[in-house]
Structure formats: C-alpha cells, structure tokens
Design a protein that fits this description.
With 376 residues, the chain is an alpha/beta fold. The chain contains 13 helices and 11 strands. Strand 8 and strand 9 form a beta hairpin.
C-alpha cells in the first residue's frame, strides 16, 4: 500500500468518526415530538355548518334536510314541519313574511335569530309578533337558561348575542334569560303552530352543538307542540352573489352578455398572416354623377336650373330637327308639339312656361319635356 492510499483511508475514517459523534450528540439532545394542529372541518361538514345538527335530528328519528335558500319554503314545507332559519333574512319582504305567518298559523314551527346590525330596521316577522330588539355591546360569551313547559330540567345555552329581546305582548310560553333578567330567547304559540326567536343561533353550529345543553335545546325545539314531519335547516337567505342572482333571475341577459363578449373577443383577436389588400374603389357611372348633381341642385333650392336645362335641350333639339317650328307663334308651336308627342296642348304649354313648383309639378314638367324631345 503506497502513502497516498493510506492518507485517503485515514481521511475516510476520520469523517466516519465525526459523523457518528454528531449523530450521537443530536440524539442525546433532541427528541421527536408530535403536535396536533386544528385544520378545520373537511368535506360536507366544511360546507354545511349545520351538518351536526342535521345528523342529531336524524338520530332522533326525524327527517331532516339542509337547503341553501328560503326560496323553497314554505312552498315545500309541510303544515307541521319545523324550519330553522339562522340567517339575517335580508331578502324577506312583507309578502313572504305573511306567507310564513300563515304557515305557522296552520301548524308550522319557525325558529329564527335577530337580523343584522341595526335593530331598528324593519323586520316584518318580529314586528307582526310584537317582539322588540335592543342592541347590546358584545361582551364575549354568556350563559342563558330557561325551563320550557313540560321539560324536566332547566336548559342552559352559551350565547354570543349582539341583541336582547323584549316580548311586548307578554304572552311567550317560555324565555331564555341570563342572571340579570335579560331575555335572549322566546317561544310562543301562533295559531296551531309555534314561533321561536333567539338572539344567537350559533349554538346549532358544528363546533358548538356539543357544548352545554345545546343539543337538548334543539331537541326541545323539535318536541315543542306537535312533533314535526320534517326539519328544514336553511343555510342562507341573504342576497346571493351577482352572477348567481343573474343566473336565477335573468338567464337570457347573462347568455346575451356571454355571447357579446365572445364576439368581441373574436373581433379583437389578432389575425394570422398578412392582411388582405383593400379592394380598389369602384368608379361611378355617368348616370350616377348626373343623378347626384340633380339631387344636389334640388336640395339646395335650384329646381328652376334643372327645369331650364331641360327646356333648353328641347329647344336645341327642335332647332336641329324642325328649325321652321321656332318661328311659329307659341299657341301653334304648342299644338304642333302636342300632336307629335300625344300630349294635350295645355300640358305642353305648362312644361314650357310654368315655374318649377313643388316636387310633383316639377316631375310632371320634366316627364313631358323628355317625352317631347323623344318624339321629334
């Protein structure tokens, strides 16, 4: 073994010793630790914040369905169904509110929350049922409780309200209140049906339905009055995005806009290859020039010039073909020309002597002069 090979082997041995020592030091000073990180819900639970509530209702033996908009209700809701509406109801007008009130009077049960940031805004449902909404300063989570009639225990809910409620009529069946006596939930009968309103319906969301008595409170809503045939959970009834609104309300307009955009893009797209040469301008005929000159003179108030030119052309033609006629008296000349052309002497006299007049008279004069010229 030569000296160069020995030095190379010694270097490799030192590198292996250093790598082994580094590995031992790293394992002695560090350890593998697993940490959990919340990544949120996935799949249908991420799209539907009320999925857990729907599954809970189904586990109780009731039919449940989640819908995207209130547009399908109450036309599809049965007279004994339960509708949970945790939205701001910005598109709910007076007519739709009257339909819901009539639906409740026939046995339906409607559960909703207060709307928006302005409690003074008109709410056709709460106004009709004499419920007043008061703004409160958000102060985190609070506990509200109440015991529904016939329910064995007091129910507690963890709420994050922005409003509190006041029953002006004072006929609510039961209320959900805090330790200060502020009301955050009300329920009462409306005809054969029932109506429930809460300052916060967030306790029905996937991440909160398992806390406190939230699931039991949903159970109470189902069992209040007559058991429903089906439970409807409405995800949204606010103003939809403009493209979706156009697709629902004005599909023809949207299709037309897409077609116009397509045509514009096709027109504005760059061409491939050289541009075609512009065609040579067509040369106009003499007749077109004469017609254009006549229209110009007529539009600028010079029909007499045109009429005098036709009369002069007739006199020149008479001078070439029958020069002796030019010495005749006007009456004889008119009769002679009328006999040749098959016209009345009065028509010949008017064509040779009357002014241009209006368009109809001018046209007759020109026609008669042309007929006289061709008859010579």
């Amino acid at each position: 073994m030569n000296g160069g090979m020995a030095w190379r082997l010694l270097g490799l041995l030192l590198l292996a010793l250093l790598a082994g020592a580094g590995t031992l030091w790293f394992r002695a000073n560090f350890e593998r630790v697993s940490e959990e990180e919340h990544v949120g819900y996935r799949g249908e639970a991420r799209r539907n914040p009320l999925l857990a509530a729907q599954r809970f209702v189904e586990s109780l033996g009731y039919a449940a369905e989640t819908v995207d908009s209130l547009e399908r209700l109450p036309s599809q809701a049965g007279p004994r169904d339960l509708v949970i509406l945790p939205t701001k109801r910005l598109t709910l007008n007076r007519a739709r509110a009257d339909d819901l009130l009539d639906w409740m009077a026939h046995g339906g049960h409607l559960v909703l929350t207060t709307r928006g940031k302005d409690p003074e805004s008109i709410d056709p449902l709460l106004d009709a049922l004499e419920v007043e909404v008061h703004q409160v300063v958000p102060d985190g989570e609070l506990t509200a409780s109440g015991r529904p009639p016939g329910w064995p225990t007091v129910l507690e809910a963890k709420l994050e309200p922005r409003h509190r409620l006041e029953d002006l009529a004072g006929d609510a069946a039961w209320a959900l209140t805090d330790d200060k006596g502020n009301t955050y939930g009300l329920q009462w009968a409306v005809g054969a049906g029932r109506f429930s309103v809460f300052a916060d319906l967030g306790f029905l969301r996937n991440d909160r339905i398992g806390a406190a008595d939230h699931a039991a409170l949903l159970w109470q809503l189902i069992e209040a009055g007559m058991p429903p045939e089906k439970v409807w959970l409405v995800l949204s009834d606010d103003m939809p995005p403009l493209p979706l609104w156009l697709a629902q309300k004005a599909p023809a307009l949207l299709v037309g806009a897409v077609l116009l955009l397509t045509l514009w893009l096709w027109r504005a797209a760059p061409r491939f290859g050289p541009r075609l040469p512009a065609p040579a301008p067509a040369r106009r005929s003499l007749r077109e020039h004469l017609r254009a000159s006549g229209r110009f003179l007529w539009r600028h108030g010079s029909p007499a010039v045109l009429l005098e030119a036709s009369r002069r052309a007739l006199r020149d033609e008479i001078g070439r073909r029958h020069p002796e006629w030019l010495s005749l008296p006007p009456e004889q000349l008119h009769e002679r020309l009328a006999a040749h052309a098959g016209l009345a002497p009065e028509q010949v006299r008017a064509a040779l002597n009357d002014p241009a007049g209006q368009a109809l008279a001018f046209t007759h004069h020109i026609q008669h002069l042309d007929a006289l010229r061709k008859s010579l």
